[in-house]
Write a structure and sequence with these properties.
With 325 residues, this protein is of the alpha+beta class. Helix content is 41%, strand content 26%. A five-stranded antiparallel sheet has the order 7-6-5-4-8. A four-stranded antiparallel sheet has the order 10-11-9-12. Strands 1-3-2 form a three-stranded antiparallel sheet. The chain is extended and about 80 Å long.
Amino acid sequence: MAYYGGKHDRILSLYSNLLNNERVNVKEAAQYYDVSTKTIHRDIEDIRNFISESSTSGGELREVVYDRARDTYRLNEAGKLTAEELFATAKILLESRGLCKSEFSVIFEKMMQCCSSPQDLHQVQKMLNNEKYHYTEPKHKKELINTIWDLGRAVQECRMVEIVYERLTEPKSKKRIIKPVGIMFSDFYFYLVGYIADKNTTNPTIYRIDRISSYKVLDEKFQTPYANRFEEGEFRKRVQFMYGGDLLRVEFKYTGESVEAVLDRFPTAQIVSHTGDDYIIRAEVFGRGIKPWILSQTDKIEVLKPFELREEIKELVEKIQNKYK
């Protein structure tokens, strides 16, 4: 079917398609309107400029998004997620398994409302429905969002917090007054990082938030000199499996298939040298949290330094061997 309109009719037609949540395929549009693909790109740029001016003058916030892989344009409400962004973010939420089912369900449904295209939303839901149905909540089954928020505000406002912490060892219940400095998430659980108020320590203690049976944010504040300010990002680079402790400088030989996976696991890691598939790697880590990871790598890892950690790994391997004799 031939198209007989001029430039303005063509642009209005393209804009109408975008408003109807249709994708504009550049090659197909060029063929239909009997123009070059460059002309279609210029038309879309004119529409972009119009939308931008409309948004500036108080109109509805929208943007034209280009999908390079499909060579298509679509209209997206500014601040909303594309189907691709929504799918990836939902997968992170589903597979983190950090929330009980009631809190997860509410957040998941709110996320679905952030999709920029009703047509794409249906596809995203179909792709996620099975995993959503089989979502497995953590065994503690506790609603934590309000607690995480209260403790997060205490961190920001530098307020002391009194907690009752349920431990796995005796005494089972322990009351502490702490200086909270960070909230973190790792391997299914949320954690509160803080310093015990009546102890002069250089390294913080880590508390699983679901094991805090009660808490009270106190009016009393604590001082944090900027030079000694706790930085969650830097702490995260050095902590493994949320084990606290002193800072260790570790050196090991890696002979596995993917050195990239090691560098992702230890953001502070540096390759000192490598010969063929053998890599010598140095990293900074807190405490002994690195030990479970080392053991999980079987014969791909050999600890070189420090000597004490090398001996600990050696003893653990011997204990494992004895269990299978």
